[in-house]
Amino acid sequence: MKHFPHQEDNHRQPAYDRPISPSRAAGNHHWVASWSASPQPVWGSDFYFPTNLPSMLREQTVRQVARLSLGGERVRIVLSNAHGTAPLHIGRASIARTERLGGHAEDTSPEMHCVTFGGEVQASVLAGAMLVSDPVELPVDSLSQLTVSLYLPHPTPVETFHWDGRQTTWIVPGDQTARGTLDTAAPSMSTTARPLLTGIHVERGSSARTVVALGDSITDGATASLDQDTRWPDFLAERLAPQGVAVVNAGISGARLLSDCMGVNALARLQRDVLMQPGVEAVVVAIGINDIGWPGTALARHQAPPSLDALKAGYRQLVTQLHGHGVRVIGATLTPFEGAMQGTPLDDYFQPEKEALRGQLNDWIRHGHLFDAVVDFDAVLRDPLHPARMLAALDSGDHLHPGDAGSLAMAEALDLGVLLQNSQAWLNPPSRPTP
């Protein structure tokens, strides 16, 4: 099989000549989402956080590393122009197994595989749309890393990205999609933001399915160790991979249940980030702390915190819409945040009245009988002697986000028996167990 055409080849890639496996021909395989990074609109230079990306890319290759949760016989990638105002052009794309662990995107397997779109090497991603590639014959293991390289030959405004990837991305001059080792000489740059790449699917046996972690920066992994895959969904993926279940991270730093800012509100992205993930059967919903904490800070100076009733209504809509698609919903309590962001311009993130609202909301999440199950992240992370504050050993140090140890504790708190249940049985449970 020809893995990568030379630059002078025609744009059409020859069809794969590998025989179709009997099990796949019999319809015993399907696609499941194995990795994701939720798209966000790029904000202006006047916002509190920098984008960490240039405003325009041209004649450059973007190389990213992603750790799969579940492996499979074939893979395909998903690109997003969700917030773009014009089509963006892909000149060439490649995928390879990452040879050197630890997220070094400049060092990959020498066997580069060309990625095509409708049989073509080049493709356009329409404004507001996403683009799914053709399948690539590349057997991959669960919890293995893949490197995806995208060449952008024309001026490409960066309008859609994932801001906090916690993984090194390289942007280098020219078309380097066929290179195992990048030439990172100037004017190359590295960043932890993720442009364009939003998903990776794998083809597996018919029993494989996906769990989505829908959340904010605590799910996104804002303080996770760089290039080490230590977000709580990463740790959950390690627990579920032997069961044939994938975990995809739909966390967005700054995300809120009811309002837009660093990403659209949870209901507005539910279809794209959850329901369109192939194989999805369950969702862990861990969002709402920014709805409570942001108002009154430099991020939302003149906003008032939402009412408890408004938050309840938002959760009810999430669950109603997910249940309408046969998806099981595990609700997560909001984690302690006293002392959050001290010494920064956001040190008014915590206020006693906000803590009171968090406590009321958590009590309702635990006892309101809305969710199919509840995981008590608050109980996992809080200091028993000071329940409004995160336990020091599990704290990243900013008193809002857990460190790696805290993320591991969160992942271990989820009951695998709950996550692995048949969806239909959980839509009308006799009782609502709590992991």
Overview of this structure, please?
With 435 residues, the chain is of the alpha+beta class. It has 2 domains: 160 residues; 223 residues, SGNH hydrolase (Rossmann fold, 3-Layer(aba) Sandwich), CATH 3.40.50. 19% of the residues lie in helices and 26% in strands. It contains 11 helices and 24 strands. A 6-stranded antiparallel β-sheet has the order 8-7-11-4-14-15, with no helix packed on it. It has a 5-stranded parallel β-sheet with strand order 19-18-20-21-22, sandwiched between helices. A 4-stranded antiparallel β-sheet has the order 1-17-5-10. The longest helix has 16 residues. It is globular, with a radius of gyration of 21 Å. Keywords: Hydrolase. This is SGNH/GDSL hydrolase family protein. GO terms for molecular function: hydrolase activity, acting on ester bonds.
Keywords:
435 residues; 2 domains; disordered N terminus; disordered C terminus
